[in-house]
Amino acid sequence: MNENLKYIAKLSASAASSFLKINILGALSTVIVIILEFTILIKGIDAGHSAHASAIPFLLMMFFARPVGSVLWYLTCLASPYVFFLFGNQYIISKITNKVITDKSESLIIPILDRVLNKFQAKQPNVLRNTGDYSLNKLKIIQAIRNDKSENKWLRKIIVFGMKKVKMDDIDFTQENLNFYDIIKVKTIQTLKNISEPSRNMIWITIGAQWAILLFIWLTKF
């Protein structure tokens, strides 16, 4: 037990560290690109007419002077934080999932799944007979895992991440003695094991897109 607690603490620290690194890198790139783009865009504005303008009229003047560049600048400002958060979160979940499944799936993931599924089955023992029943109950189980604060949040995220990807299209629900809970447990573990080594490619692509937009604004007058 102590070994598992130490492992979870180390896992949480690693996840937090990766999250900070990715978002600091993204924030730094975003701030630099936004400042440089803004500096380039306002060069075409007559300072005599804009010196005393408030922010909104000034931004409108910038838009009319460089409409395409201004729209791209607005998109960079608004979309970048969300995109970095989204891809960063996906990368971290994939990273810790790959590590936990490789190191300790038997002692960490399976026991949590057993506890959650046993609790859920006790409350709702009805036999499931179709994919509609399955989909509804899968959503309920995912919500139960998210709400179970007694378990480590990263382990809960891993299980939810895998369970969302589980498909039951190949299951014949007309079979007798079909146990939905055993099936979803096995398929969740198998799905997690099939998750490949995580890649930061989408983060680098996002940074590359930011700097490509900067280059476009610098080289054009649109």
Detailed description of the structure:
By secondary structure, the chain is mostly helical. The chain is 79% helix and 0% strand. It has 8 helices and no strands. It has helices spanning 2-41, 47-50, 55-65, 67-123, 131-147, 153-164, 180-194, 201-219. Helix 4 runs antiparallel to helix 7 (180-194). The radius of gyration is 25 Å and the shape is elongated. 19% of the residues are buried. The mean pLDDT is 83.
In short:
This protein is mainly α and 222 residues long. It has helices at residues 2-41, 47-50, 55-65, 67-123, 131-147, 153-164, 180-194, 201-219.
Number of E-state strands: 0
The overall average pLDDT, rounded, is 83
Count of separate DSSP helical elements: 8
- Rounded to the nearest angstrom, the distance between the terminal CA atoms is 62 Å
Fraction of residues in helix: over 70%
Given as residue ranges, the uncertain stretches (5+ residues, pLDDT < 50) are none
Counting helices, strands and paired strands, the structural category is mainly alpha
Q: What is the strand content?
A: under 5%
Main sheet: strands, sense, barrel: none
Q: Compute the gyration radius: what is it? A: 25 Å
| Overall form | elongated
One letter per element, helices H and strands E, the order comes to HHHHHHHH
